[in-house]
Each structure stands twice: as C-alpha cells, then as structure tokens.
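hey m, so remember when u said the tokens were messed up on ur end? i reran from scratch. heres the input so u can diff it against urs
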Amino acid sequence: MLLLAACNSPVPEPYGPVPTGAQLAWQRMEINMFCHFGPNTFTGAEWGSGDEAESLFNPTALDCRQWVDVAEQAGMKGIILTAKHHDGFCLWPSTYSSHTVTQSPWNEGHGDVLREFTDACRGRVKAGFYLSPWDRHDSTYGTPQYNDRFVATLKEVLSSYHDIYEQWFDGANGEGPNGKRQKYDWDRFNATVARLQPNALVFSDVGPGCRWVGNEEGKAGETCWSTIDVDGCEPGTGNPSSDLLMHGRQGGKSWIPAEADISIRPGWFWHADEHPKTVDELMEIYYNSIGRNALLLLNVPPDSRGLIPAEDSAVLVAFRAERDRIFAHDIAQCGVAHGEHLRGRRYRADNVLDTAYHTYWAAASNDATLTIDLDSVTEFDIIVIQEYIPLGQRVTMVNLAIDEGDGISLQTSPEHPLCTTVGYKRIIRCDNDKRWRTDHLELRFNALAPPIINRIALYNSKAQ
C-alpha cells in the first residue's frame, strides 16, 4: 500500500507562468551559435548602407557543413544565420528584392545560402533565421507597403526551408532610402511566424518566445527571472529598460526567458584585423549567462571565404574541452541528500543527485532546507542548482551553511546570500579563488511557493 501511495502521489501544481514545450526545449539547448554573414563580411562594415554592389558578395569556399562541424565540436545545439541584415541584402533568391545573391557572381547567380545552410543543419543542429525588419535598401521602407513586403518576405523564407527553432528579430529602426522611418506591424510579423513555424520561438526585446538580455556582453543579471511584464512595450524604441530585460520581474505575467548574445570577436561580422576571445573570457561569459538562467547565443562570423576561421574554431574546441573538464566529475554523486518532502518517495530529496531531468525534490514549505552528506571531507568551488521550471520559477534566495571542521563553519546571510534566483540553471562559484571544504552542507531555500529542485551538483574546477 505504501508503494502504491508513493506511485500515485499527485504532481505538484504549477506556480505562475510556465514555459511551453518549445521554450523548455530551447532553454535546455543552453548554448547556440550566431552567424553574421553578408555584404558586411566583404566591406568591413557592421551596418551596411544598403547601396553596396551585389558583386561584392562572392565567397570563394562557402561550406555551411564546416559551420555545423564547428558548432558540434563546440557543443552547440543550434545556429542562427543572418538571412537579411539592415542593408537589405538577401542570402537567398528572393522574389521580393533585387538586392540578393541572384545578382551576385557567387555560383554564377544561382546560389542560395539558406538552402545550403538548412541542408547542412538537418539532422545535426537546429537552424534559425535572423531577418531584419529595418531595410536600408528597399524604397518602400517607411510606408505601409513595406510591412506588406516584409510579411511576404517572411512567408517566403519560413515556408521554403526546413523547420526552424528560432526567428530572431531586433528592433533597429532607421530611415530608409526615402528618408522615412517605419512603423512596424509586430503583431502581424509574429502571427506570420506562429502560423508558418509554430514550433519556432520568436526572439525580440519583448519576445514573445524569448527576450533580449538587455546588453551585448553575454551577461544576465545576478537576479534573473524568466517572468516579465511587457504590456505596452514593443521591440526597438518601445522596448523595456535594460535593467528589466537583464533581471526580468518577480511575479511577471509572461514567461519570456532571457537570451544573452555576444560575439566571439569585437565585431559581429568578420574583420581581418580582429581576433577571438580567449577560453578564459568565454568561460566568464558562460558563468554569467547560462549560469544565471539565460541561454547563450555566441556569434561566430564566417570569413570572406565563407568559412569559420581556424583561429576561432580552435578557441571554441578549447572552450568545450574546458567545460568538459570542469564539469566532468560531480562530487555530490557520492553523497546522500535529505530534505523534508510532503508528497512521498516520488519527490524525495535524493532526486536532486540523479541526472534525469524530470525527477525532482518537492519541498513541503516555501522556506525549506536540503542537506547533502558526502562520504568524506571534500573540496569544491562550484555549486550548480536547477529548478524544475516546467512547474514554474519559484526560488527567491538560497543560503549555504557548511561545517568545515575543527570548529570552523560558514554561513551566508539574507544580506549576502549564496544566490538569489535559480531558474533553469544557476552556477555559483566560490569567491576569490577559494574553495569550500566539507562533508556536510545545507542549502536553505526561500521561495514564492514550495521549491521544486531537480539537480544539485558540486564541482572542483581546480582538479586536474
């Protein structure tokens, strides 16, 4: 009877907004690649003028399979390509523009970068598109006719290629060739994506699928809620404040998680005189994005050959190796977890130590303590905590208490907690290059509803 009761324990009720299945799958990707590629690759510009000669676009060795090779070696699960940037140049033979690859000498005017890109991604990584609403080439920009043109362009792209996982919009809005600014029809744009690619998340300053993190430093806030209020806001000039985008809002009405974008090089497009960030710099970005409940979108621009440079590829492979080294051995796996649970063995504390995503500890109260006893005194400098976000984001603060032996104890406080929000994943590092040393630790959770934790892991980044 006890076993039957445990199996029939009711699932905890969700708290507040929760992610859709597509949003959860997106968050679990953790790190994806951005590829800025187009006329700017050949001119050295970051924002093209829109009047560049189509003959400039002529990659000599374009190979999208090589991009996918690099992404896979770096541990990335998706790639987003700039199908059309602000200059209006289309990387596919668009019916709605004369500023496209068809007018370029590449492949004698018969090329289609989007086709090669999506074919290369199929079965390996997920594909996404960036389509800039701002178009510095289109003469109808700034008129109602342009919205019709942009919707037609969206339809053309979203119905002509494979399924995509993310449609990336920014709110850039400047004067077009007629000297006018455009009033974008965002509702219509988003509805077009939803109809043609229902599983794709729409990225913008306000979502609705995922939101900009408010900076281009790859950095989420120390407190980062996936919930936010965006009523009355729109991408670009009507976007929320950077502070709100970085932190989200406790009790927000919408689940719109943060995406942190940054380039591996100083610029977004490839420039011959620039070089990629170091592994140490990329690890810091990783901790400040994925480690703070955001997804990391790392831009890796192909060069004028149409290839990701060997220098960038080598750094990305080393970045993957460093992550694999640091997170190879979970010290908590040799421990035993204890915590009060109200719903029976199905939601016991030991669930936080397994690696199955859909098992978790369901606490009995909003303020709950979970303890982990290790089999010996052990050193570690990283604590990873994950909430089971399919049931909502709940945790507002976590404090740590440990016994370091010989009468020495350490305890964080509400004024200086171990961390505030958790969300999908929180990675906490020991301060000042130090390490925690104990065989017993207590994690004290404060939450808006009884916390539901599906993973706690401990690592020693200094271990060889």
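this time it looks ok to me. The longest helix spans residues 144-160. if urs says something different then somethings off w ur setup not the seq
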